[in-house]
Structure formats: C-alpha cells, structure tokens
C-alpha cells in the first residue's frame, strides 16, 4: 500500500491512459505549463508536450464543443473546466450535443470524451466558484457521471471513463485534491456504475459520494462511539448508479440517510430517495433522510460557508433522528 | 311496588347469614316458594324460599354475610324504578378485565384509542404481516413514536395470545412464552399450564367449617382431656336388638343412647358443665349425637333422652339425622346438649379420642362391633366385641369417676336387663 492524494491519482489516471493510448489528450484553461488551476495536470505538459496537453481560451462552450467534435472523430479527449460553475456556458455542447449524438446517429458514432469538473465548496471561492451541480447532469440521458471520493477510485474511474465510448462527466471535489489516501500498489480500474461499501454496518445506511464520503465516515466514527453501527456507501458513479448495492444495504439496515453537498432542494440524492421509496419501500423502517446544503448560494464568508455546507455533525444529527 | 328481599331469621340465635349460590338472575320472575338463594348460618345451610312474588330487579349482595333482616335483593315489577331502594354508597360493578389488553403493551402505557391511525414503518408493517403480528396495539419506539421493525420482532417473540389469555397469564403470573399451545394461546391453555404449578389451592371455609374449627380449638383450650377405652361384649345388646326386631327398628346406637343416658343419671358429674368455678349439673340428659354431613359435622340434640324408651329414641334420632342431612333442621335443635355420643363404628374404628363438645365435660366414642376371641369362663370363645372411647374433662371428672362410669356402662350394655332393676 502507498498513499496518494486525490489530485495525484487523477493525474496518474490521465497519464496512464495517455501513455497507453496516444489518442488520449487533455485540454482546458491553464492545464498546460501552469499545470492546471489546482495543479492536477502538473508535469503532464512536460511529458506529453504541447499537442496532447493543451491550454484553451476562457470559453467553456469552446472547450466542451471541441471535445465533442474531437471525440466524434475517434480520439479520446479529456476536457477540463476550471470550475463546475462554468459548465453553464458549455451546457449546450454537453447536453444538446454530447449527450444526444450517439442516440441521434443511431449508434453509428462513438463519443469517447471525458469532461472534468472541479466542484464543490469549502475553499472560500464564493458563490460562482463553489457550486455542486451534479443534479443537472446526472439526469441527462446520454451522459455518464462519476464522482470519486478518494485517490484509488479517482484513478480507477479515470481509466474507465477515458476508455468508455460515451461522454463521461468526471466530477472532482476541489477540497479533496490535496487529501491523501491509501491506494493499492497495483491500482485497478473501477467499473462505472458500481458503488463501494466504504464501511459495513447494520443500523443505518449513509449513502453519499464525493467529499461527503469523508464526512460520512467521520460521522460513522462518532456514532460508533454511541453504539450505532453505520454502513457507508460511496456511490462513486452517479449515473449509472448502483441500485442493487443501495437497495441491499437498505434491506439490511432499514434506515437510510442520503448526503450531498448540493443544496438539498432538488439535489441528485432526491433521485436515490425516490428510487428507494419505489423499490425498497417495504424495507424502510424509518423515513428517508436527506442531508444537503442550505437553500442559498454558497457564501464567501468562511463561517457562513461552513454553516451552509453539510458536515459530519449534520450527518450525525440526521442519523440520530431516525434511530 | 319494589321491595327488599331480606335475610330471614332461621333460628332464635341467628344474627346473620351468609348468602351464596343465587338460583335466579336479575330480571328473572320469582313466584312465592321459589328457591332464590342459599343461606349459610353458623349451624346450617338452607335454601331460601321467596315469600314474595315479582321480578328480581337487583341483587344487592351476590355473596357474603348479611345481618338478619338486612336487604339482600330488590323485588318488584319489571322496569320499575327502584333507585330509591339502592344503598347510597353502593359499590360499583366489579371491575372487568379490559377487552383490549395487548400481550405486549407494557403496564402503564397508554393504549391507542380504537380507530386511531397507527404510525408504523413500511418495513415494520411488512414484517408484521409476515410474522402475523397485530401491530395496532403496539407502542412504537421508532422515530416519532412509529412502530419499527424491531418493535415487531419483539412483539413476534411474544407468543400470540388472546386478550383473555394475556390477562389470565398476567393474573396467574404465567410467562406466556412457556405456555404450550397449538397456534394462538387461549385462556384455557394458560389455565391448564398454570394448574400443576399453582400454589396450593385455597378455599374459604364454609361458615360451618369455621364454626367447627373454632369450637374444636376452643374445646381443646378449655378442657383438660383424658381418654379411656374399654372393651364391651355386645352379645347381650345384640340379643336385645334381635328380640325387638319384630316390634321396632332399633339400632345399636339407639341402645347405646338409652343405656348411656340412664347411666349418666347415676354419674351426674359426667352430665355437667363448668361455668367459672361452678359445676353445673344438668339433671336431664340432652344427648348430642354427632352426625356427619357433606359439609362437616352437625350435632343434633335429643332432649330429655333419659326418660325416653328405645322406640322414641330411634324415631327422634332418625328424624334429627334426616333434618341434618337435608339441612331442614331447626337450628334450635342443634343446641343445648349435656353429653355427646360420636359413633365411628360404621367406619370400622376400634378406638379414637373424640374431642369434647363444649360445654359438655365428656363425650363417648362408639366403635365398631368386631367378632373377637375372648376368654369367658376360662374358655376361648368368639364374641362380638366393641370398644367404648370416653374423653372426659379432668377438670371435674377424675379418672376414677370416669372409669366407674365406663365400668357401669359396660356392665349394662353387656346385661341390658340390669336397667330394669
């Protein structure tokens, strides 16, 4: 075992694929010699050169559109947007083009592209640079969506995302980039659509993804001291998502807390909640509880930002509510 | 016009009676002469015949002691308002077990009113259906007081029982889990289970038994008893009985009553009582004769038996015995003995130590007549032999007196003709 930060793992995944497959290339704002706004692509420009690690203008529409076009020609682009918030600008390319092309061309076209979206708050980046918007994209047919929570998964999901012949939206949490975690010596692919049981337990299922997996693990630790045996499920893929794993856990515990950093209103986890209610209703022994951000833009003031975003304490409280 | 049915006075000394075994229910019509309940006094149990006709409107005393002339029920016309006759402080109806006792509700917990919405998790409801648990009366421990799957599991571990079974189990201190039953546990299952483990069965003593117990104990406290036994050759008495067979139906008891009564005239100390420091000589012999009845023991009294002939004794004894056995005897005939006979011969007894019937100072126990080899004129011969068991109160009856009495009695029984001297 060794440790690796989340950001290093993403870089390692991209690098691995670029070494294996010279149709894989990375582009985005400042991903080149600068190494990316968060340093994720540091050193890659040096290894792969100007053609395969390309800086772009500040135009998300162009970045995503170029990825769509490139992928349609058979290469495997990785497009990085500096902040998820700016996916709004590239939304037409992503939702109306990338997501629809294979379907509208009757499957005669592959669109093997990855769009990397640095996401989430907690770093004092204010309302336009801190949002969590996975709900927008996880509900679009034609897009696959992943959101790793740790280095091993970030690496493994990067490999399978690049290898997939469909557009994959790759969410990365900005606050996780520098967080180290253990990875196996031989890092492996993580299949799309497969969740991971981060911690086994019998009393309550916390289902979450991304940074909130860490919060959930902290909450589980707190609750364990109270004798509550929490199971933590890390979804890893938001679409396709691992319905079987979630339902199996709910069947075991009968109680489920869903956590997301999105504003609770309309958050992606509402889809999970609805699905559990539809398919796992008779296994529910308590109301489904959602934990999300308060219903407001992400504040700049750190104290307010911490209040607005969900944390481990919020999760602990949510679990206690249904014990 | 509604009126009371009251406790009758069945004898001069009766002050109260105990009601039991109502033969009619409230609302039943009653005719004059109908048996409506049983009365137990300290002497007898007797069915009460109504002297009134009407409808039984209200039973005031389902069971228990009532003073003579005290109201026990209200009789009148159907639908009549008898509220004025009700005692002001009448106790409410006996508390019945609530119908909705749940086998799992904890004592003291508030049960939900019927029809209230039950808060139960989907999982718990499914589990309840699978396990056949009636969750409507459960108290939830889940979030917001909802019934959780755990609540159902706990309830399922509780054996299924009818409300009455649960109530009975609680009453008898029976753990329902231990009660074997096919399917749902019913009340009779609980009762059957409880039976072998029941504490010793308890029963209130009847009035008669209480009186007997009290009198026997008092007697032992009062008297300084001493016991004597003598064997009597019954050849003569047998011959006497045989000789009268064509004339009258005479029992050995009758013969013994007569001989004892006459002999007591010669031994007044044994036909006496002790009152403080005085000895009361009664003169006339009023012979108590112990009669075993279903519920215990009664001692009717043959008054002035010392002047009676055998036939009168036989007739009156038979009458008294019948009166005792069917409880028709006038309670006054159960009082006033001066000496008592107790015959256990029919049970084959050869000797016993009877307890003195107070305020007597002696009691004669009569035993079985058994043929035995005896020595008569230096010859072993077979004779019908009987033992007499005398218990005397040594306070006034010394051994010599008692022994002489017994000796005389023995001689007279063996030679009844001596009485004619």
Offer a few descriptive terms.
heterodimer; A: 323 residues; alpha/beta; Rossmann fold; 2 domains; 7-stranded mixed beta sheet; 11 helices; 14 strands; globular; B: 421 residues; alpha+beta; OB fold (Dihydrolipoamide Acetyltransferase, E2P); Chloramphenicol Acetyltransferase; 3 domains; 4-stranded antiparallel beta sheet; 18 strands
Task: Give the topology, please.
The complex is a heterodimer of chains A (323) and B (421).
Chain A: E1 2-5, H1 6-20, E2 24-28, H2 44-48, E3 53-55, H3 60-72, E4 76-80, H4 91-104, E5 114-119, H5 134-138, E6 144-146, H6 151-163, E7 168-173, E8 180-183, E9 196-199, E10 204-208, H7 212-225, E11 230-234, E12 237-239, H8 243-253, E13 256-263, H9 269-279, E14 289-293, H10 302-308, H11 312-321
Parallel strand pairs in A: 2-3, 2-4, 4-5, 5-7, 6-7, 10-11, 10-13, 13-14
Antiparallel strand pairs in A: 1-8, 6-12, 9-11
Helix pairs in contact in A: 1-6, 3-4, 7-11, 8-9
Chain B: E1 3-6, E2 16-20, E3 29-30, E4 35-40, E5 45-49, E6 54-59, E7 64-67, E8 71-76, H1 122-131, H2 149-157, H3 163-172, H4 187-197, H5 207-222, E9 225-233, H6 235-244, H7 252-266, E10 272-275, E11 278-281, E12 287-289, E13 291-293, E14 296-298, E15 301-302, H8 310-325, E16 339-343, E17 362-376, E18 379-393, H9 399-414
Helix pairs in contact in B: 1-2, 3-4, 7-8, 7-9
Description:
Chain A is of the alpha/beta class and 323 residues long. Chain A has eleven helices and 14 strands. Chain A has a seven-stranded mixed β-sheet, sandwiched between helices. Chain B is an alpha+beta fold. In chain B, strand 17 and strand 18 form a beta hairpin. The radius of gyration of chain B is 33 Å and the shape is elongated. Classes of the chains: A alpha/beta (323), B alpha+beta (421).
Name of the level-1 CATH class of the largest domain in chain B: Alpha Beta
What is the typical, i.e. mean, pLDDT of chain A?
96
Q: Any low-confidence stretches of chain A, pLDDT <50, length ≥5?
A: none
| Number of strand elements of chain A | 14
Q: Please write the string of helix (H) and strand (E) elements of chain B.
A: EEEEEEEEHHHHHEHHEEEEEEHEEEH
Estimate nothing, just give the exact number of structural domains of chain B.
Answer: 3
Strand order of the largest sheet of chain A: 3-2-4-5-7-6-12
Using only CA atoms, what is the Rg of chain B? 33 Å
CATH-level-4 superfamily name of the largest domain in chain A: Thiamin diphosphate (ThDP)-binding fold, Pyr/PP domains
């Amino acid at each position: 075992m060794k440790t690796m930060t989340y950001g290093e793992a993403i870089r390692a995944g991209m690098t691995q694929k670029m070494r294996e497959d010279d149709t894989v290339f990375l582009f985005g704002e400042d991903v080149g010699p600068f190494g990316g706004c968060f340093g994720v692509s540091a050193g890659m420009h040096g290894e792969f050169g100007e053609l395969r690690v390309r800086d772009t203008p500040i135009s998300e529409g162009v970045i995503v559109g170029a990825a769509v076009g490139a992928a349609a020609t058979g290469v495997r682009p990785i497009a990085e947007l500096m902040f998820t918030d700016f996916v709004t600008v590239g939304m037409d390319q992503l939702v109306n083009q990338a997501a629809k092309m294979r379907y509208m061309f009757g499957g005669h076209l592959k669109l093997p592209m990855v769009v990397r979206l640095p996401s989430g708050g907690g770093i004092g980046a204010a309302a336009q640079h801190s949002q969590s918007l996975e709900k927008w994209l996880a509900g679009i047919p034609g897009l696959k969506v992943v959101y790793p929570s740790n280095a091993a998964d970030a690496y493994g999901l990067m490999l399978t995302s690049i290898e997939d012949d469909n557009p994959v939206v790759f969410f990365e949490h900005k606050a996780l980039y520098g967080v180290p975690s253990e990875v196996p010596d031989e890092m492996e692919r993580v299949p799309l659509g497969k969740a991971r049981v981060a911690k086994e337990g019998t009393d309550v299922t916390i289902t979450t993804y991304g940074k909130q997996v860490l919060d959930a693990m902290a909450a589980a630790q707190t609750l364990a001291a109270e004798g509550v045996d929490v199971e933590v499920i890390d979804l890893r893929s938001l679409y396709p998502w691992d319905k079987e794993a979630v339902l199996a856990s709910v069947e075991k515990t009968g109680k489920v807390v869903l956590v997301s950093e999105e504003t609770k209103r309309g958050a992606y986890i509402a889809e999970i909640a609805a699905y559990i209610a539809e398919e796992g209703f008779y296994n529910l022994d308590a109301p489904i509880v959602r934990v999300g951000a308060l219903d407001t833009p992400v504040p700049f003031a750190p104290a307010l930002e911490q209040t607005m975003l969900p944390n481990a304490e919020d999760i602990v409280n949510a679990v206690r509510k249904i014990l | 016009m509604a009126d009371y049915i009251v406790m009758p006075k069945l004898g001069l000394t009766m002050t109260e009676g105990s009601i039991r075994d109502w033969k009619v229910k409230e609302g039943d019509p009653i005719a004059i002469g109908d048996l409506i309940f049983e009365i137990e006094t300290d002497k007898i149990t007797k069915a009460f015949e109504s002297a009134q006709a009407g409808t039984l409107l209200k039973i005031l005393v389902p069971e228990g002691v009532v003073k003579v002339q005290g109201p026990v029920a209200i009789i009148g016309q159907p639908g009549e308002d008898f509220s004025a006759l009700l005692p002001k402080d009448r106790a409410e109806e006996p508390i019945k077990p609530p119908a909705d006792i749940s086998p799992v509700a904890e004592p003291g917990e508030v049960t939900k009113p019927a029809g209230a919405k039950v808060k139960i998790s989907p999982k718990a409801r499914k589990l309840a259906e699978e396990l056949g648990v009636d969750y409507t009366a459960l108290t939830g421990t889940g979030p917001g007081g909802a019934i959780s799957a755990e609540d159902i599991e706990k309830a399922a571990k509780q054996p299924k029982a009818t409300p009455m079974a649960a109530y009975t189990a609680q009453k008898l201190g029976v753990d329902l889990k231990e009660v074997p039953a096919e399917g749902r546990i019913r009340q009779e299952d609980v009762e059957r289970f409880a039976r072998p483990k029941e504490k010793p069965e308890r029963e209130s003593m009847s009035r008669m038994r209480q009186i007997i117990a009290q009198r026997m104990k008092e007697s032992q406290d009062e008297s300084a008893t001493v016991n004597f036994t003598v064997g009597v050759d019954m050849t003569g008495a047998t011959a006497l009985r045989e000789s009268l067979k064509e004339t009258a139906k005479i029992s050995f008891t009758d013969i013994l009553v007569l001989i004892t009564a006459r002999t007591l005239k010669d031994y007044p100390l044994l036909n006496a009582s002790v009152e403080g420091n005085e000895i009361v000589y009664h003169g006339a012999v009023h012979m108590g004769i112990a009669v075993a009845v279903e519920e215990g023991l009664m001692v009717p009294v043959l008054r002035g038996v010392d002047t009676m002939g055998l036939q009168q004794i036989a007739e009156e004894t038979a009458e008294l015995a019948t009166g005792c056995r069917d409880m028709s005897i006038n309670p006054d005939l159960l009082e006033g003995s001066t000496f008592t006979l107790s015959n256990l011969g029919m049970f084959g007894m050869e000797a016993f130590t009877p307890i003195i019937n107070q305020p007597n100072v002696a009691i004669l126990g009569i035993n079985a007549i058994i043929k035995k080899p005896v020595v008569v004129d230096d010859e072993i011969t077979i004779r019908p032999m009987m033992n007499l068991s005398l218990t005397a109160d040594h306070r006034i009856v010394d051994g010599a007196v008692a022994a002489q009495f017994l000796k005389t009695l023995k001689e007279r029984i063996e030679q009844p003709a001596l009485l004619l001297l």
